[in-house]
Amino acid sequence: MKILVYADKFVDFAVPVYMKDKRFEEFIDLMNTIFPGNIEIKKISEPDRFKQVREYKKTKKWSAEDYLVLLEISDNGVAAQKLGRSEMAVQMKRGEFVPSFNKWAQAHGRTPDKQAVQEYLEKNNG
């Protein structure tokens, strides 16, 4: 835990500290012992910084066309923009799909097209 002490003697924590009610009361008692009469408790509302993360959890299923984009466009940023997905999602799916598909396509003498991708997905529970 980092405790920040500013030049004007204000004390703060570097990150939020979450406590149950009993532990919070004990902590305030300790602070009052260390800093008698100088404790001010302010209730703050924390911004919903995880709202976007929750929205991303509504994932779209990957279609054969989406997988084909991974095979046709090598730049993750361009592919992400075309697919309307995050660059990280594209990178992760590319790492999972492309090597496996390429191995399958080579073994079956297939070229990367929509029909081959659909066949691959059907045979590999995609």
Describe what is shown at a glance.
The protein is mainly α and 126 residues long.
Molecular structure report:
- Helix content is 55%, strand content 5%.
- It has 126 residues and is mostly helical.
- The chain has two domains: 1-46, no CATH class; 51-123, no CATH class.
- It has a two-stranded antiparallel ribbon.
- Strand 1 and strand 2 (11-13) form a beta hairpin.
- Helix 3 (64-72) crosses helix 6 (114-123) and helix 4 packs across helix 5.
- The chain is rod-shaped, with a radius of gyration of 26 Å.
- The two termini are 45 Å apart.
- The model has no long low-confidence stretch (mean pLDDT 83).
Keywords:
55% helix, two-stranded antiparallel ribbon, single chain, 126 residues, mainly alpha, 6 helices
Oligomer state equals single chain
- Counted up, domains total 2
Mean pLDDT: 83
Shape: rod-shaped
- In DSSP terms, counting alpha (H) and pi (I) runs of 4 or more, how many helices? 6
Total beta strands? 2
Sequence-ordered SSE layout with sheet pairings:
Elements lengths: L2 E3 L5 E3 L7 H14 L16 H6 L7 H9 L3 H8 L3 H22 L5 H10 L3
Antiparallel strand pairs: 1-2
Helix pairs in contact: 3-6, 4-5
